[in-house]
Amino acid sequence: MALTREQMAWRVARELRDGYYVNLGIGIPTLVANYIPADIDVMLQSENGLLGMGPFPAANEVDADLINAGKQTVTARRGASIFSSADSFAMIRGGHIDLTVLGAFEVDVEGNIASWMVPGKLVKGMGGAMDLVAGADNIIVTMMHASKDGESKLLQRCSLPLTGRACIRRVLTDLAYLEIESGAFVLRERAPGVSIDQVRAATAGKLVVAGDVPEMSFDDPPR
Amino acid sequence: MIRRAKLGLVFGHSGSHVAGFDKRVGSNEEALAGLVDGMTVVVGGFGLCGIPENLIAQVRTMGVRQLTVVSNNCGVDDFGLGVLLKDRQIRKMIASYVGENAEFERQLLSGELEVELTPQGTLAERMRAGGAGIPAFYTATGYGTPVGEGKEIREFKGRKYILEQAITADFALVKGWKADWYGNVVYRHTAQNFNPAAATAGRVTVVEVEEIVAPGMLRPDQIHTPGIYVDRLIQGRFEKRIEKTTVRSR
What we know:
The structure holds two protein chains of two kinds.
Chain A: H1 5-13, E1 21-24, H2 28-31, E2 43-46, E3 50-53, E4 76-82, H3 85-93, E5 99-102, E6 106-108, E7 113-114, E8 117-118, E9 122-123, H4 129-135, E10 139-142, E11 154-155, E12 170-172, E13 176-181, E14 184-190, H5 196-202, E15 207-208
Parallel strand pairs in A: 1-2, 1-5, 5-10, 6-11, 10-12, 14-15
Antiparallel strand pairs in A: 2-3, 3-4, 6-7, 8-9, 12-13, 13-14
Chain B: H1 28-31, E1 40-43, H2 53-62, E2 67-70, H3 82-86, E3 90-95, H4 102-110, E4 114-117, H5 120-131, E5 136-139, E6 153-156, E7 159-165, E8 169-175, E9 178-180, E10 185-186, H6 195-200, E11 202-209, E12 211-213, E13 232-235
Parallel strand pairs in B: 1-2, 1-8, 2-3, 3-4, 8-11, 9-12, 11-13
Antiparallel strand pairs in B: 5-7, 6-7, 9-10
């Protein structure tokens, strides 16, 4: 069975460590905040200028002046700080964020990522994504393995305009967790009940399968 | 380089004193006097948060056209900078995110609007650099992507960077929370966003705030934008529309 969006978020949350400053992108990455293990503390950075993003406000706490990068109303947690966009991207570009999680349209075996436009069809703009992928060492891309049309999103070479070049090393999809090494996707974990052949069939870029590839376990509590 | 315009007029409330450091003006017309067709305007805000609502409305009222607008987003279809887009007052937009603005995306795809999509951090830094007298800077952001095409590339310590140009503007439109007469500005929560950088990048910087207080009422060590950057100051009333109200269930 392919992972649900919630299961994907839960799996990514297992990569969090105590004391991490983390930037979560829009979509599935945002859900990761719901699965932060109880025994660790992380600070969520929102690139519009908030470090220490808290949960959504109660209805009577909604404040138009306090939003996240997805333009949703949020709160600031205890110990939060607020600053300008220039300062926010100084901490991003300067490599101070411990983990960045973001979505993508395509990723390829060279670690290239495309996430901001489909020529002639869809222009969202890159927002902060280009800065995030250029500034972070530790990035996890979370996305569906295939597009809505069934096309693989893990390619030998990205077909869409790039967001960043040679910057992605880890990808979590609804089918698998993969790492990008030496020009290939290396299959590290499979979603429960998903076979290696299924992953192979769904991956257009070069796939390396080394030894036993364990299934993800959703019985263990998050570390 | 910004040569700060010496205002030829005395903008004061009473008109009976020399303005000196008193940046207050009495109306939105005064606040944007001198803004004409073809100018470049940098505007603070992120989405609809921290946008200078009243100054944008004044630009619409003035009907100036052929503007180059620099702002992270372009509002929504019927609020914020979106209204200038709808009225076709904007010739060129420099922004990082088209996002949910259908009219922006339509004008972009049809070629009616010239758009320079700029990564968000690069956009903030281009404003900051412009205000700080730095004409250009190198950044790794956008290298190897369409953003880097045609730009100078240089390698530092084994990594490739592209040269990005600073941004300055004829006018900067800024939204603050509180300011004193001298134009020392404090922002509230994440309504700060692009406003401090925008405030530095205007030849004429106009700030609208929720409350103007007497000098001495704000703590000097808590000022976000020092008055030296501010030319005109006005108090406004704000709708503060929320793009996406999200709440938790209790």
